[in-house]
Amino acid sequence: MLKNNELFAFAGIWDAWYDDTKPVYTFSIITTPANNLINPIHSRMPVILDRNDEKSWINGKNIDEAFRLLKPFNHELMKSYEISTLNNNPSSDDARVLNAV
Fold this sequence. Notes:
CATH class: Alpha Beta
Oligomer: single chain
CATH superfamily: SOS response associated peptidase-like
Order of helices and strands: EEEEEEHH
Helix content: 10-25%
CATH topology: hypothetical protein yedk fold
């Protein structure tokens, strides 16, 4: 989560292909080595785009620019907290899954 609680975007890739005659849309989130905040939890993390870089990623006109964006997000702009084990159950449909414990 960002310290300022603002929304953020992940870098991802997508493709459309055909299974017989119907289109199948696929999407993947791109990961990077974890920053200092996430590393104690996991060795990788999604690429979080700085707000100023979102349009560059979406436009995708320059491959060198795209690769420049594939880096760990600044850990000083993030915060973390432990959440409920309710989150481990896929049928949990309750805002309490985000509450700090």
